[in-house]
Design brief:
Helix content: 40-55%
Number of strands: 18
CATH architecture of the largest domain: 3-Layer(aba) Sandwich
Radius of gyration: 27 Å
CATH superfamily of the largest domain: Aldehyde Dehydrogenase, Chain A, domain 1
CATH class of the largest domain: Alpha Beta
Number of domains: 3
Number of helices: 18
Length: 525
């Protein structure tokens, strides 16, 4: 039994490198369209029997896999660290811990979240009718996952899709295939039935083949440009997609905020995972009255961060995962400086390293003409800009093509909530940054060019099922008054329905009863 069968044998391979050293750490097959089609076929064959299992029986496999993850926690953290460049402690905190929580949550609650809801159909209930919803698995879900969170992103979606009764085919980033293969290995050890989880490693052509392979839904996490191509390709087959794309997430610091706490939040929000998170703080707007003190705190704390190869728990910031992203960061910082911005600390790659390291960088004197404030940087850079009023802060936060997350820092929670509800983002946090992706109960997703659809929470689970409406007439021997034959009497009754029934008033509708009774006994002459 195998959850990651790699047949037929592939002659081409992906070579995986450690971003901290440039050393080769492993290889994975570059699977072609035939291999992807075979994986989808295996998944489709396995899915019907899986869908017949109760939620409780599905949960046993998820919880068994969860125990295996706990047993192999250090090994998994080390693999994530070597493949991405992030510190192992951060791999545990930001990837493994959230997935362990999510596995437990959906294993225990999916039966409630997908319970059969009754629908209140108003006065139609009085006619002894009722309606309810049945949630059915989609079939085979294709997951195209990113390199920045190679463990958490696919595994969360795998667990939710399996609990909903689907089979899954995962195509990981070509930069981080080993972590995805580890996920497959863990579910194999958990004795998940063969074919239910297939891992197809490869490059962009492998992902394109998955979209073309006839899956029932695509869950894509990645860049806006690639997301558009995925949506376009999926549209040809009417395959629904969930797109979790880029972000340019703003943090607003009001004048009454706890400055020390807000500064620490900004630093972690901008520099965790080397800034390579779609929810990273990429724009920081600070009230002008506190900007100098806030910036001084941020610069001071940033200079204390320890950066290097993620070989010990003492490292705060590791390497960036790939050189192309490092070059984008350099370009954005360089563009800002050319336009008059000031680098307060950092600003360069580490030239004495064999890996792809960029210093944690704080930039002031920025404005919205700069790439650093408009394009997704996806690196360890925190640009700080000032504002005068709450209205200006909201305007600046919304002045972006993106809308994934945002945050507001203030001691006045009511004020923070008012501002949060004016910001265009899928999630807005008050006195928090980044971390709600780790809260399994809450939905995750964006607006504008940050994508559409949701993962996590009940809204995310509903993306992985189809909703079937069942309507019941509990009086099978009684004809409906709106059936044939049409007659003058019928026309009068229907006009009465228009004036009385549609008001929702039981008293008003009761005046129709004599006409309804006569209509029930009316037959074509």
């Amino acid at each position: 039994m195998s959850t990651q069968t790699l047949s037929p044998p592939q002659s081409r391979e992906i070579v995986v490198h450690d971003p901290s050293t440039g050393e080769e750490i492993g290889r994975a097959p570059l699977m072609d369209a035939n291999a992807v089609a075979a994986a989808v076929s295996r998944a489709r064959s396995a899915q019907p029997e899986w869908a017949k299992l109760s939620y409780r029986k599905r949960a046993r496999f998820i919880l068994r896999a969860r125990e295996i993850v706990l047993d192999q926690l250090e090994e998994i953290a080390k693999l994530i660290s070597r493949e991405t460049g992030k510190p192992a402690t951060e791999a545990i905190a930001m990837e493994i811990v959230p997935t362990l929580d999510l596995m437990h949550y959906f294993a225990k609650t999916t039966h409630q979240l997908l319970a059969r809801p009754e629908i209140d159909i108003g006065q139609y209930n009085l006619m002894y009718r009722w309606s309810y919803i049945v949630y059915k698995p989609l079939g085979v879900v294709g997951i195209i996952s990113p390199w920045n969170f190679p463990w958490a992103t696919p595994l969360d979606e795998v667990v939710m899709a399996l609990m909903a009764g689907n089979a899954v085919v995962v195509k990981p980033s070509e930069l981080t295939p080993l972590t995805a293969l580890k996920i497959g290995e863990i579910f194999k050890q958990a004795q998940l039935p063969e074919g239910l989880l297939e891992i197809v490693t490869g490059d962009g052509s492998t992902g394109a083949a998955l979209v073309e392979a006839g899956v029932n839904k695509i869950m894509f996490t990645g860049s806006v440009n690639t997301g558009k191509r995925v949506a376009e390709a999926a549209a040809k087959h009417l395959t629904p997609v969930v797109l979790e794309l880029g972000g340019k997430d703003p943090m607003v610091v009001l004048e009454d905020a706890d400055l020390e706490n807000a500064a620490r939040a900004a630093i972690w929000g901008a520099f965790c995972n080397s800034g390579q998170a779609c929810a990273s703080i990429e724009r920081c707007y600070v009230h002008e009255s506190i900007a100098e003190r806030f910036t001084d705190l941020v610069v001071k704390e940033t200079r204390l961060l320890k950066q290097g190869k993620a070989s010990t728990d003492a490292i705060d910031i590791g390497a960036m995962t790939n050189e192309r992203q490092l070059q984008i960061v350099e370009d954005h910082v360089g563009d800002a400086v050319e336009r008059g911005a000031q680098v307060r600390t950092g600003g360069h790659r580490l030239n004495d390293s064999k890996g792809w390291f960029h210093q944690p960088t704080v930039v002031t004197g920025v404005d919205h003409s700069m790439k650093l404030m408009r394009d997704e940087t996806f690196g360890p850079v925190l640009p700080i800009m000032t504002f005068k009023t709450d209205e200006e802060a909201v305007h600046l936060a919304n002045d972006s093509i993106y809308g994934l997350t945002a945050s507001v820092f203030t001691r006045d929670i009511s004020r923070g909530r008012r501002m949060a509800e004016q910001i265009d983002a899928g999630t807005v946090m008050i006195n928090e940054v980044v971390y709600t992706h780790a809260v399994a109960q809450t939905p995750w997703g964006g607006v504008k060019q940050s994508g559409y659809g949701r993962t996590h929470g009940r809204l995310g689970l509903l993306e992985l099922v189809s909703a079937q409406h069942v309507h019941v007439n509990g009086m099978p021997r009684v004809a409906d008054v709106w059936w044939f034959p049409y007659s003058e009497r019928a026309g009068k009754l229907f006009r009465g329905f228009a004036r009385r029934f549609t008001t929702g008033s039981l008293l008003s509708s009761s005046l129709l009863l004599p006409g309804i009774i006569r209509r029930l006994f009316e037959r074509r002459q």
